[in-house]
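Hey, can you fold this one?
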Amino acid sequence: MQQQAAPADDAVPPMERSHWVAFAGILLMVSALFNLLNGFVAIFNHGYYSTVYSQGNRLLIFNYTAWGWIWVVVGIVMALAAIGVLVGSRGARRTGICLAALCLVGQMMFLPVYPFWSLVVMTVSVLVIYGLLAEPRHVHGARV
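Sure. Predicted structure:
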């Protein structure tokens, strides 16, 4: 009986290294789309987020147009990081973790305005962070 040696980490395609990483990459892309949606709504439809809690045209510290552009930029960078995660870039995984944490904190500012939407996006961000940090059992040494 001959034992087969496990292939080297570089010989395994990035998508086959960990299903959690692939899952996190897809969720990172979904989160990017959510952030782009938030951003464009804040830019083009100021009344959409206006509620009793937001006191008019301000959302905690910035106006809606500033928040909109911030979320558009974050969404674009997240989409690029998601593509990097799906092709196996370690730097993209680190960037994805940082952006998901930024998104998590940023959604806390939307919490009084739309709590259900914010909780959904925050849950997606937590799953992205877990997926990018989880070490696959079959590939040792594949940490971020």
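Residues 84 and 92 are 5 Å apart (CA to CA). Let me know if you want another pass with a different chain boundary.
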